[in-house]
Design brief:
Blueprint lengths: L6 E2 L14 E2 L12 E5 L2 E3 L2 E3 L2 E5 L6 E3 L4 E7 L19 E6 L4 E8 L10 E2 L4 E4 L11 E7 L2 E3 L7
Antiparallel strand pairs: 1-2, 3-6, 4-5, 6-13, 7-12, 8-9, 8-11, 9-10, 10-13, 13-14
The chain binds zinc ion (ZN).
Zinc ion (ZN) binds next to loops.
């Protein structure tokens, strides 16, 4: 299934209640959720630890589609966790719950965490930009349905929102 909407998130930092309707663009990167999302947590220090990605909720919440942000090869899948975890502190999947990792082959790697247990891709599979890879879940250490979205460039964790600027 292709994501018909190319969306980008806010370019600024903000509070947990920050909301901005996505902007349609023909950028290189597809937004990983449906539109109508809310960014509930930014990359940065949180509770004394580095939060390595952005948390994206709304967008239809639990069970809504999650899309590959760009074409690449699936390098990791975990689908061993209940779609609804035990909440904060649930260590399933290293706290990430169900997860997909995609290597885009140009130095970029993206990670999608807390997914629903029904993951639509397998390791070694080639995916295209905007292809659905799974569903938003609440697995692992998660207190509500959301996507944890991480981006690495040449092995270093970067701000996911920077690829949409
Ligand atoms: Zn997160």
């Amino acid at each position: 299934m292709q994501n018909q909407i190319t969306t980008v998130g806010p370019n600024r930092g903000g509070s947990t209640s920050d909301y901005r309707d996505p902007v349609n663009l023909n950028g290189a990167w597809a937004w990983p959720t449906n539109r109508g999302y809310v960014i509930t947590s930014y990359r940065g220090w949180r509770w004394g630890r580095m939060h390595q990605g952005v948390d994206i909720s709304g967008a239809g919440n639990f069970g809504s589609a999650i899309y590959a942000s760009a074409g690449g090869t699936v390098t990791y899948v975990n689908n061993t966790c209940p779609s609804q975890g035990r909440g904060y502190g649930d260590s399933c999947g290293g706290a990430m719950g169900n997860e997909v990792v995609i290597n885009h082959g140009n130095g970029y790697v993206t990670r999608y965490g807390h997914l629903h247990q029904t993951v639509l891709v397998r390791v070694g599979q080639t995916v295209s930009r905007g292809e659905q890879i799974g569903y938003m879940g609440n697995s692992g250490s998660s207190t509500g349905a959301h996507l944890h979205f991480e981006v690495l460039y040449n092995g270093s964790n970067i701000n996911p929102l920077s690829i949409y600027q």
